[in-house]
Amino acid sequence: MRGRGYALAALALGVVAGLTPAAAQEPGTVAAGVIRVDYGRPLPISRLDLPPEDMGFAGAELATADNTTTGGFMGQKFTLETVTVPPDGAVAALNEMIGRGVQYVVAMADAPEVLAFSDAAGDRALVFNALAPDDTLRNADCRANVLHVAPSRSMETDALAQFLAWKRWGDWFLIEGSHPADTALADAYRASAAKFGQKIVETRVYEDTGGARRTDSGLVQVQAQMPLFTQSVPDHDVTIVADESAVFAGFVPYHTWDARPVVGSAGLRPVTWSPAQEAWGGTQLQSRFEKLAGRHMRPEDYNVWLSLRSLGEAATRTNATDLDSLRTYILGPDLQLAAFKGQALNFRDWDHQLRQPILLASDNLVVSVSPQDGFLHQFSPLDTLGTDRPETACSFN
C-alpha cells in the first residue's frame, strides 16, 4: 500500500503529519479521501496513454485548493488524504480512512470494490464513484450512500448515438472485444441503437489472444489482419468499437477494409473531459490544472475534481460541514455545480447519477457535445442520456 498526503492552507494532512482522529473531526473541517485501486492491468497500446503516477490525485489536490479558497472566508477547512492499494486492500484502506475521521471517500475503482466500499462505509461516510461505468450500479445494485460522478456506459453510448443520429449515420458496424467489460459496452451500444432508431448491420467479436501489441511484429500483424477482419461487412456508415479493455481499439482507425469513420473506444470518443476542452471557461480550469500537475487533465482527474468540488459547493451554500447537511444538499434540488460544461450540474434523485453533458472528442478537438439539439425531455435534456426515471431498476429501500 502506498499513501500520499497533501498540505493545504497550512494544514498538515493524513499520516504524513500524524493526524489524530480527534483533529480530523474538528468542527468546521471537511475531511475527504481518494482511494485508487491498482488492478495491475496491461500497458496501453500507445505510450502516450500511460497513466501518470498522480492520476486522479492531481484532480483531488486542485479541488481541495479550490474548496479551501472559498471555504476559508467562512472558517471552513478541507483536508485530503490519498492512497493507492491493491484490490484486496481496498476495504481496509477505507476503514482506516474513516477511522481517522474521513467522511467523504472518492473511489477510483471497479464495480466490485465500489460495492464493497458502500457496504463497509454504511452511514459513516459518503462514497463518490469516480470511475466505474457499470449501469447495474445505477440500477439493481444501486446504493443510497454512493454518488456516481463518472458517467454510466449508457450515458456515453447514448451521447454518441445522438450525434450519429444527428449526422444521419444510421447504419453501424459494431466490433466488440472478448472481455466482459467489452460485452457490457457493446450491450450499451445495442440499447442505444434501439433507443434512437439506429441499425447495427453486423457485429463481430475481436478475440484477445494476448499477443505482443507494442512490438514491430505486432504492428505488422495488425496492418495485415485488421483489414481482413473487417472485410465483407454489409454497407454501413460508421464503425463502432466497443473495447473498454483497451486491447485493440487503437489499431482500428486507418486499418478497416472500408473507408468509414471509427467511433467509440477509438477515433471519436464519448468522454467526460478532454484536454482540448476550451468552451465555457474550460481553458481556465485546464491552465490551473496544468500549472499544478505539469500535464493535461485527464477524465479521471476531472471526475475526482468534480466529486470533491461538490463538497465545497455544499459547504459554502449551507455554511455547514457535517455529513448530514452536506449529503442532504448534494442530493437535493438546489445543487448547482459549476463544471465548465455550459450548465450547472446536479444528481438524479432516482439513482444518484450526476447529470452532465458528454463531450465527443477526437485526439485534439472536441467535435461535439451531447445531448444534441432536438433531443427533448420533459424535465431536462440531460436525462436523455442514460437511465431515465421511468426506466430505473434502482430502489434505495
How is this structure best described in words?
This protein is α/β, with parallel strands linked by helices and 397 residues long. The chain has two domains: 2-151 and 274-356, Response regulator (Rossmann fold), CATH 3.40.50.2300; 154-270, 3-Layer(aba) Sandwich (Rossmann fold), CATH 3.40.50.2300. It has helices spanning 21-24, 57-71, 90-99, 111-121, 153-167, 180-195, 216-229, 282-293, 299-318, 323-330; strands at 2-5, 29-37, 77-85, 104-108, 126-129, 146-148, 171-177, 199-206, 238-242, 262-264, 269-271, 358-361, 366-370. Mean pLDDT is 90; it is low at 1-24.
What's a concise summary of this model?
With 397 residues, this protein is of the alpha/beta class. Helix content is 31%, strand content 17%. Helix 4 links the parallel strand 4 and strand 5 (126-129).
* Helix content percent band: 25-40%
> Would you report the number of β strands?
13
Under the CATH scheme, which architecture of the largest domain would be assigned?
Answer: 3-Layer(aba) Sandwich
Low-confidence stretches: 1-24
Number of separate structural domains? 2
Looking at this structure, what is the CATH superfamily of the largest domain?
Response regulator
CATH topology of the largest domain: Rossmann fold
For the CA atoms, what is the radius of gyration?
21 Å
Query: How far is the N terminus from the C terminus?
Result: 35 Å
Q: Which class do the helix and strand fractions yield? A: alpha/beta
Tally of individual helices:
10
Question: CATH first level of the largest domain: which class?
Answer: Alpha Beta
Q: Give the biggest beta sheet.
A: 6 strands, mixed
